[in-house]
TrEMBL record:
<dbReference type="Pfam" id="PF13641">
    <property type="entry name" value="Glyco_tranf_2_3"/>
</dbReference>
<dbReference type="GO" id="GO:0050501">
    <property type="term" value="F:hyaluronan synthase activity"/>
</dbReference>
<protein>
    <submittedName>
        <fullName>Glycosyltransferase</fullName>
        <ecNumber>2.4.-.-</ecNumber>
    </submittedName>
</protein>
<dbReference type="GO" id="GO:0030213">
    <property type="term" value="P:hyaluronan biosynthetic process"/>
</dbReference>
<feature type="transmembrane region" description="Helical">
    <location>
        <begin position="418"/>
        <end position="438"/>
    </location>
</feature>
<keyword id="KW-0812">Transmembrane</keyword>
<keyword id="KW-0472">Membrane</keyword>
<dbReference type="GO" id="GO:0085029">
    <property type="term" value="P:extracellular matrix assembly"/>
</dbReference>
<feature type="transmembrane region" description="Helical">
    <location>
        <begin position="88"/>
        <end position="110"/>
    </location>
</feature>
<dbReference type="GO" id="GO:0005886">
    <property type="term" value="C:plasma membrane"/>
</dbReference>
<feature type="transmembrane region" description="Helical">
    <location>
        <begin position="450"/>
        <end position="470"/>
    </location>
</feature>
<keyword id="KW-1003">Cell membrane</keyword>
<feature type="transmembrane region" description="Helical">
    <location>
        <begin position="47"/>
        <end position="68"/>
    </location>
</feature>
<keyword id="KW-1133">Transmembrane helix</keyword>
<keyword id="KW-0808">Transferase</keyword>
<keyword id="KW-0328">Glycosyltransferase</keyword>
<feature type="transmembrane region" description="Helical">
    <location>
        <begin position="389"/>
        <end position="412"/>
    </location>
</feature>
Length: 487
């Protein structure tokens, strides 16, 4: 049975009945929906989207046709490769990697079907929580974020909301002040004297927070009414739980082609992969958009986290992955809550997207190195197999980035038609799981964007990981100051 499709309209509608109270805190949240509706000129036309999808299928079907037509050439190529000096070892390695990846996928599929989110506990069992919202140049978005948090179905007396302006140069501080006027004592706001980075803004919130649980929410994100209580409930049920990841989906997925593609990718990444990771108690990254931490776990690594360096330079990216790593290192479980939805904005243009991916990939390289230092030690009493398998799977993708990049260039130079046709057929085959997964849970029509995203990533973002590896020591948020943010 299909579950609720979290489009922005349905998301907000399910959160609150706007007609019930004209003074409801959620009214400004609905304003986002209404404004985006009136700004139709910014949306890509449905004709353009249809052209992209049709073009996607033409490319994949053409690729499959040419694989069939070039079968003799493929056989000759494989024969030449096997008979070459490096061909047989490469073939053995490729087959071994294929079976390893297939095994990991089937294991993840098994874990996914076993996974169930922890149901929300009653009000009297909910712990006190401090919600920390760091913000930099978010403008009015921070107002919407704070009001959506205040409208949460969480006991007021148990929830503290802290917003930290990280030296913004726009009107972010003004909108924080307006939210403070609206919410009164429910919200406390702080302003950093200068921009020091998201990690330092969160650090200030951690030091000032009084809750048993810390919840971090990005200032361009909107939470559903029951998100907070669903996000916090695992700490009550599982005393070994140190952190919980929320379920991130795309807020601006109706406004541009890239967000449409990313929305399908996010669902696959969170609802499939993190569900499997959660069954192993080893979710590798609690996202900045919405995550929760036990305060004792945070204080157990806070100084190490704020003073973290990489190759002698202070770390100013990957604060969420770093915190997750350090909490795993303490032996805690890190879980995922599929029922803790948060909608967040993603880049709508290529420049913003590749810079975001570079930042994520650099963090991934850094934190995999850190994870290698403890994952094969006795870091927890329970089974460590899952954490080690996830680490090995991620590490292989990093280690093999350059060999496969070189092999790709070799194929393009020597057999361009074989490369293009086999790549298109491969996308048709392997991306079909993402399509079926999204279609079953949400929308069949939107699911086809998984094919378009795979083609887009393969031909325009393939360089991200190799580039991130050789520039892993570079600092900088990269996407700050870009104009693709939703306003």
């Amino acid at each position: 049975m299909k579950s609720e499709a979290i489009t922005s309209k349905q998301f907000f509608s399910s959160s609150h009945d706007i007609s019930s109270n004209e003074h409801s805190l959620s009214n400004p949240v609905f304003r986002i929906q209404n404004e985006s509706t009136h700004k139709a000129v910014k949306r890509p036309s449905s004709v353009l989207g249809l052209i992209v999808l049709i073009g996607t299928f033409i490319l994949m079907i053409t690729g499959a046709f040419f694989v069939y037509q070039f079968q003799a050439d493929f056989d000759q190529f494989h024969l030449e490769r096997i008979n070459s000096t490096w061909g047989l070892p490469f073939l053995v390695l490729t087959v071994a990697l294929f079976f390893f990846q297939a095994g990991v996928f089937l294991y993840n599929l098994y874990l996914f079907y076993k996974y169930k989110p922890i149901e929300s506990v009653t009000d009297d069992l909910l712990p006190t929580c401090t919600v920390i919202v760091p913000a930099y140049n978010e403008g009015k978005l921070v107002w919407d974020t704070l009001l959506s948090l205040a409208d949460s179905d969480y006991p007021e007396q148990k929830m503290q909301i802290l917003a930290v302006d990280d030296g913004s140069k726009d009107d972010t501080w003004y909108w924080m002040q307006q939210a403070k006027i609206r919410l009164g004592d429910r919200l406390t706001i702080y302003q950093q004297p200068e921009n020091k980075g998201k990690r330092h803004a969160l650090y200030r919130g951690f030091k000032l927070g009084t809750g048993e649980i810390f919840v971090t929410v990005d200032s361009d994100s909107i939470v559903k009414k029951d998100t907070l209580r669903n996000l916090v409930s695992p700490f009550v049920v599982d005393e070994k739980c140190g952190a919980v990841a929320g379920n991130v989906q795309v807020l601006n997925n109706k406004k541009a082609l890239l967000p449409k593609m990313l929305n399908v990718s996010f669902v696959m990444s969170f609802e499939f992969m993190r569900s499997a990771e959660s069954m192993l108690g080893s979710v590798l990254c609690t996202p900045g958009a919405a995550a929760a931490y036990r305060n004792t776990a945070v204080f157990g690594c806070l100084q190490e986290w704020i003073n973290q360096t990489f190759m002698g330079q202070p770390s100013d990216i990957g604060e969420d992955r770093a915190m997750t790593n350090m909490i795993l290192k303490q032996g805690h479980h890190v879980l995922f809550q599929k029922n803790a939805y948060v909608l967040t904005n993603v880049p709508e243009e290529y420049t913003g997207l590749y810079k975001m991916f570079i930042r994520w990939s650099r963090s991934n390289v850094r934190e995999n190195i850190m994870m290698a230092q403890f994952v094969f030690k006795d870091f927890r009493k329970e089974s460590k197999f899952g954490a080690r398998l996830l680490f090995l799977n991620q590490s292989l993708k990093i280690v093999l980035a350059y060999p496969f990049l070189l092999f790709m260039f070799y194929l393009i130079a020597t057999h361009p038609l074989l490369f293009l046709s086999s790549t298109m057929l491969g996308i048709l085959i392997f991306s079909s799981f993402s399509v079926f997964f999204y279609a079953k849970r949400y929308s069949v029509a939107e699911a086809f964007w998984a094919y378009s995203y795979s083609i887009f990533y393969t031909f325009s973002l393939f360089w991200i990981t190799p580039y991130a590896i050789i520039t892993a020591n570079k600092r900088g948020w990269l996407t700050r100051g870009l104009t693709e943010k939703v306003s």
